[in-house]
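Milestone M4 deliverable, item 7.
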Amino acid sequence: MDLLLWGVLPYVSVVLLVAGTVWRGRHDRFGITTHSSQLHESRLLRIGSPLFHFGMAFVVLGHVVGLLVPMSWTDAVGLSDHAYHLMAVSTGAVAGVAAVVGIGILVYRRLRVPAVRRASLRSDRVMYAVLLGAMALGLLATVLNSTGQTDGYNYREGVSVWFRSLFALSPDWALMAGAPLVFKLHVLFGFTLFALIPYSRLVHMFAAPVRYFFRPFVVYRRRRPGRLATREPKRGWERVS
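Output delivered:
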């Protein structure tokens, strides 16, 4: 079971993520959207959406650093393990609380506003349940680990090493088998969420307007007074050219 959970399931999740995204990009391109419900209600959305998105951005960044940066690298630059955990917990807690508050507002809005509730998709229920579970378990793991409830477990020597071994296609699944239960559940919910991305509204993260930053400048010309009055009108075929 440990081999299936920590040595096979991550790759299945990635395959579902990539295959589903490619399929939707080829056959359901116009369905890759947030299915925005701003027209139905905007007051709660203006509060919950920025809290959730900015909070999640820093949460993801913290996971990237914590999972991909080896402990030896931070030791090499003189950052002690205590200082690293203090910085990670302080910044991660703020980002996590902001994301949880934001998603709480969005879920409340979806349940309590009739128009938004009617516009919800069936996949939204599953997506919100898995997302809330992953976030709650992440915060719980942080609290338990910081208060010594996990017997001094260091995820940088366990979960992080296992996660990096996945990229080498040689998963050290025994490291995850020895992790505390709360970390295991958090990882399971995380990979389940990855697999659900192409089949829920979360797929809109792949439709970010990146091209907007590289679009040509829009040139505005000032109309001079009297310029149109002195210009001879063009004939029809000249207007086209």
